[in-house]
Amino acid sequence: MAYVQEAVNKIIELCKIASPTGYTDKIMEYLVSEVKKLGFKYEITNTKSFIVDLGHGDSNAILFMAHIDTLGAMVKSIKENGRLKLTKIGGYPFSHIENENCIVFTRDGKEYTGTIYNVHPSVHVYKDTGTIERNEDNIEVVLDQKVKSKEDVKELGIMPGDFIAFDPRTILTKTGFLKSRFLDDKAGAGILLTLAKIVRDFVIEPKRKIYIMFTSYEEVGHGAAAGIPEDVSEIIAVDMGAVGGDLESDVYSVSICAKDSSGPYDYDIVTKLIKAAKLADVNFTVDIYPYYSSDASVAMYAGYNVKHGLIGPGVYASHGYERTHVDAIEATLKLLQKYLELE
C-alpha cells in the first residue's frame, strides 16, 4: 500500500524536526508547506493549533487531531562550572534522557549541541555512578563548547528559558520496526497528513465534512482547549496506543481506547471505531490506559459539545525511546479510512 509508505516517510520527517512544547514554529512551517502542496485551506490559531479543512459534507463535521509538540526541556540555570541545569517540559523520568545528545536553542536563533549526563558519570571516578538519584539537581547538559564558567556560557548567548530538544535517533529497520523518540505523537501526525492526501486523491468518499487539527501544547495538558471549529460534532484524537502491562495492545495493531485517566470515551464512537476496524480487517485492540489523557479529553474539559474518541498505533516504551511497527501504522490508517466511509 503506497500510502502506508507515505505515512512512514512523513513520520520520519516529523520526528527529525525539533518541537518541544512551546517551540513549534519550525514544525509548523513544515505543516504549512505540506498542506499547501495538497491544496487545502488551513489556519493557525492564537494557541498555535494548525487546522486543515478537508472539505466534503456541509454539516455534522468530524475532526481528527494529533499533537506536534513533544517532550523536551528548558535551561533552568547556568552553573558556575559552565554546565546547564534543566527543567522538564512534559512528563518523564530523568533516567529517560540520561546520556542523550541534545540541542540548545537560544532566543537569538543560535543552536548549540551538547550531551545530558548525571553529575557523576564516570565509573572510574565516582562510586555512586549507578546509584545516584536521577533528579533536577543531578542531571546536567555538558555543552560541546570550550566553556569552563557561567560567564563563558553567557557569552554564547545562552540563558535560562532557552529550549532544549533531545536527539530523536529515528531508525526504520529492514524488518519494519520504527524506533524513535517522539512517536508520541509524530506517528499520529504523519498518519493524518497521509489521510489528507488520501482524501485529496479521492481514494475514499467521506460522508461528512472533515477537519484535521495539529495541536502544540498537548504534552503540558491544554493542546485542544481552544480552536475547534463550531460545526464539529465529533473529535477523535490520533495519538499513540500505549503498550505494556496487562493491556491488549501491541506494536503491530491499532489500539482503540475505551477509557483512560480522564474517564470513558464516548460509547457510540468507541463502538463505531470497533466496527470500522472489523470492516477494515485490521489488527486492533480495545484498551484502557491507566496513566493517560488525550487532547480529546482536554476538549471535553474545555466545554466543547462534541463526542470524543481516541485511537493510535501501538507504541512501546512511551515517553522514552519509543518503537512501533509499520503494521500498526497501516492498521491505524486503514481504520480511519473505513471510519470515514461509515454513515
How does the SSE layout of this entry go?
Elements lengths: L1 H14 L9 H14 L2 E4 L5 E6 L5 E7 L4 E7 L5 E6 L11 E5 L5 E8 L20 E5 L6 H6 L7 E4 L4 E2 L4 E4 L2 H18 L9 E6 L16 E7 L2 E2 L11 E7 L2 E2 L2 H14 L3 E5 L6 H7 L5 E9 L6 E4 H16 L2
Parallel strand pairs: 3-12, 3-13, 13-18, 14-18, 15-17
Antiparallel strand pairs: 1-2, 2-12, 4-5, 4-9, 5-8, 6-7, 6-9, 7-8, 10-11, 11-19, 15-16, 15-18
Keywords: Aminopeptidase, Hydrolase, Metal-binding, Protease
InterPro entries: Peptidase_M42, Peptidase_M42_aminopept, Peptidase_M42_dom2
Protein name: Peptidase M42 family protein
Describe the structure.
- GO terms for molecular function: aminopeptidase activity; metal ion binding.
- It holds the Pfam family Peptidase_M42.
- The chain has 343 residues and is of the alpha+beta class.
- 26% of the residues lie in helices and 29% in strands.
- It has 7 helices and 19 strands.
- Strands 1, 2, 3, 12, 13, 14, 15, 16, 17 and 18 form a 10-stranded mixed β-sheet that branches. A 6-stranded antiparallel beta barrel has the order 4-5-8-7-6-9.
- A hairpin with a 2-residue loop joins strand 15 (254-260) and strand 16.
- Helix 1 packs across helix 4, helix 4 (183-200) crosses helix 7 and helix 5 packs across helix 7.
- The longest helix has 18 residues, at 183-200.
- The two termini are 25 Å apart.
- The mean pLDDT is 96.
